[in-house]
Write a structure and sequence with these properties.
This protein has five helices and three strands, in the order ααβααββα. Strands 1-3-2 form a three-stranded antiparallel sheet. Helix 3 crosses helix 4. It is elongated and about 55 Å long. The N and C termini lie far apart (32 Å). 18% of the residues are buried. The model has no long low-confidence stretch (mean pLDDT 91).
């Protein structure tokens, strides 16, 4: 799971999904990433148990797997803010 969280693109995808389910094309446009790249990242996030997908016709809408993933994402953001604040005091 930590390896899945190590890539900045995957963290950006998770941050986008925090607001609700999105299709690959929407994520691709929002992040400025190519659709195959977003699909690859989503596959890794899905394998790590961080996201799930629901098919609606030809599209798959991805969402955060559960509230634990949301809490984990919040903790990562808080930790990053803490590190930046501590670096500013040095």
């Amino acid at each position: 799971m930590l390896q899945a969280l190590a890539a900045p693109s995957r963290l950006l995808i998770l941050a986008q999904l925090r607001d609700g389910p999105l299709a690959v094309t929407t994520l691709s446009e929002a992040l400025g990433l190519r659709q195959p790249s977003v699909s690859h990242h989503l596959g890794l996030l899905r394998a790590a148990g961080l996201v799930s997908g629901v098919r609606d016709g030809r599209s798959v809408f991805y969402r955060l797997r559960n509230e634990h993933v949301t809490a984990l994402l919040d903790a990562i953001v808080r930790h990053g803010e803490h590190v930046r604040a501590a670096a500013g005091r040095e």
